[in-house]
Predict the 3D structure of the following.
Amino acid sequence: MLPAPAKLNLFLHVTGRRADGYHTLQTLFQFLDYGDWLGFRCRDDGQIRLHTPIAGVAHDDNLIVRAARLLQQQSGTALGADLWLDKRLPMGGGIGGGSSDAATTLLGLDHLWGCELGLERLAALGLQLGADVPVFVRGRAAFAEGVGEQLTPVTLDEPWYLVAVPAVSISTAEIFSAPELTRHTPVIKVCGLPEGGGHNDCQPVVEARYPEVRNVLNLLNKFVQSRMTGTGACVFGSFPNASDADKVSRQLPVTLKYFIAHGCNLSPLHQRLERCKAEAGV
């Protein structure tokens, strides 16, 4: 089993819109030691089979299956795979569940099939699947630009996070197509990163359209400075230790889902793969 960790956008600035409709961004990614898990088994017949489907998502449309088939095509392998997903991250939560699953599939099958394409080629394949996939493939906390694919690795503090999960799934396409979205936040340089500062340009749009998110932000802000990640719906606050995060979590309504996780500058997926290589003497 390999982890497919969550990510947080510690800030998200929308700096413009390209002629093709895609938005230019500046954001700060950090991983969490919490996420989905994926299991892999090699097949000799070239078939790709995901044995744990997601409700409402057709087998062939699932990013995991698409990632596996894309790697097959690009590597030229005749091998296939059986795949299993232990889904823990909410869909439409802004914490990268689908993108992370795709990245773990690319890295896991690259290892299982012996493709050895390397991170550069795998990240390029990942970009065909989604703008957030490359950061999960590369596995380092990063300052991201462009549509999110231009990555500069950074070293950040690694606090503990309380991540609240409002009972709503939010479409990224809906938020980025909203006419009221701010699209002209001034560009900053990586040397001027506002760690702990910055803002999320998508948050006002989501708060206005989704009272579930607005209410959770208002609630969590009573205890800790809180922010939405990505295009929502998850909301997070940072703490110096797990105990402080736990104390706040016990004051939340029992109906509000949440999890507590440690921030990671090196993805748990890459930590696991490095241990596997060390154990194999590679």
